[in-house]
Specification:
Chain lengths: ~425, ~300
Amino acid sequence: MSRQRLGASLNQARLLLVLVAVLGALCASCGPGPEPAAKPVTVLRFWNGFTGPGTKYIERLVKEYNQQNEGQVRVEMSVMMWGDFYVKAPLALKGGKPPDIGAMHVPQMRDFAENGLLKPLDSCLAQFDSSDFYQNAWSVGQVKGARYALPLDVHPLVLYWNKQIFRKFGLDPNSPPRTRDEFLSIARRLSADGMRGILIPPNWPTHLVYYSVVGSNGASLFSADSKKCLTDSPEALDAAQFVQSLIEPEGFSPRNVEVDADSEAFRSGKAAMLINGIWMMPQFEDTPGLDFGMSILPNLGSRQHKVWAGSHQMVVFHHSRMDAQRAQASVKFLKFLSDNSVEWAKVGTIPVRRSFYESGAMEAVPLVSALQKDIDAIEFPLLSVEEEAAMGQVTEALFRSLRTGENVDSAMRESTQKASRLLEQERD
Amino acid sequence: MAAARSRRSWTPYLFLAPHALFFFAFVIAPLFLGLFISLHRWSLFKGRMDFVGFEYYRRLFDLQIVRTQYYWDSVKATLIYVVISVPVLVVIGLLLALMVNCAVFGEGQKRVLRSMTLLPVALSVTVVAVLWRWLLFYENGFVNSLLAGVGIQKVYWLTEQPAAWAAIVLAVAWASSGWNMILFLVGLQGIGREIYEAATVDGARGWQTFWAITLPNLKGVLAFVLVLQIVGSFNLFGIPQLLTSGGPERSTTPVMMHIYNEAFSSINPRLGSSTAQGFLTGLIMLAFVLLQLRMFVRRPEDA
């Protein structure tokens, strides 16, 4: 603060010139704004849930941006738990210190947009070239005909495999399974001599595996009008049966694995493969002696390859003081984050700009770079709030049958009925 | 006389005022605000409140509604926990108090024992839960390696019933029986030496003394501990949240956790229905406490 003030007093004249020029340029590109030079430093509040390994990367980017724009814009970041963020933000937007910029997950972003809490960015992005973005990550930012978000990354389910164990069992450490049959035969080979091929917890993240298989079987979780739950279709039942078969009769995994025990076993070399989020990557890289490979979850269905993923979408919030100039300054920062998201891959996410891969910049993060060929398989289940609640029924039944060995068909049929009922009740 | 009386009637209220202020601000006002919220459909996003009357209360008795089933499932889980945990926690507290109060130990030893049993109380719920989670993991938890060491089959402490309840009671007992111990200890120290001496003269030994003298004299404290413990057990939240995440399949989701989830886990907070559930739960708890007060507090008067 004091350093900034000192700098400002030393270079006041030059700074003022720059400021006028920049604000003038901003106003020109984003419609009419308020009189420039009225506010010397625009403070932008940036809220996100990047706790854990992501914090230091995002902090570095924010610091860099603040240095580049010293005297004009200062980004003040608040990092909190995602759950707190989504509860606090709607309240804060009505209060005295609202956030200006945020990073959000897809379902929440769309819900915020539909409820008028986000600023449409179309006017600020008029000359923006979006062709560099991967289409699936870009298109979710479009809600009811308006654009609300710029994608920062996608984070899909991936398959991790322990190369050392692959070698020990006579498998090629550089060719992971690509299909259901390959996956099963490799897991069978690896389930011997006290080794676990793969562990399947009747809990997180197994429902995401199930969603991916349903999608890869060409089926949907809900009808297009969102009135019925469709998880009793033959394709969806096949997905549930497949997941259960990994426990029984294949016996890759015991029935009752705790949350996180699957990744713990993979890390300590007690399980040869793991299906989990790409965000586990940094942890495994930091594990001494763990030589692992990573690919997008293989096609475990019978049709077109689909894989569940989340995505961090960057947004500008709508509040009473969000004028055109502030929105433009916010978007400029979002572009900066996007332009510099190669580093962000190290947190265990996939940047969504084609140019990063074409220019070779992504070679700095080879594990992630190798996933590029499968980015098109990535899909975000765009579940509404009601659908999300209804899916709770279905996943609960799936987990119960995985845990107890109960017939998965009847459990899924029954829970589908209940989910459809819940869907109907949630609407009123 | 009249002036004196009026002065007398003001003075106590002045003494009460500081507490009353906080009591009104943080108990009475939120209570009425809660009631107000429970009668409205409140959308935080739209910033709109629509009056719906007792609709959310009505829904809590319509078992066709899936969310209503969730609520009653969680009430059932809470009652199961109350029934298991209250006797265990009260008895452990009593045993610890008897141990700490035992004449075998000298003053210094007693002090050490007291601190040891009371120490876990100072830990936060999070620390306790994470600690027990590590201890109870199936594959490499300390408890299971201990069991395996003596040839007993490992137990799925966190993902199977009834072991999950056992795990929760264990963690809570370890963390909180110190409170009950202290209360019982106060009661024990209030029993006059001379009663024990008289009993010894009459030839009472060990258990006889306990049943005939210690326990009857602890009746008041026991009633107090029971009321506190039942209310405490009804308020279970943190330990299952962190130990079992309410699982397997919501079976260890107590009602407080359910109400919290109802309010805050969805993208669009369901404040009206969750407050209604909070009120109904409050009434259920009130009924329990009244029942207890009848059982324990009236009896000495009748006798």
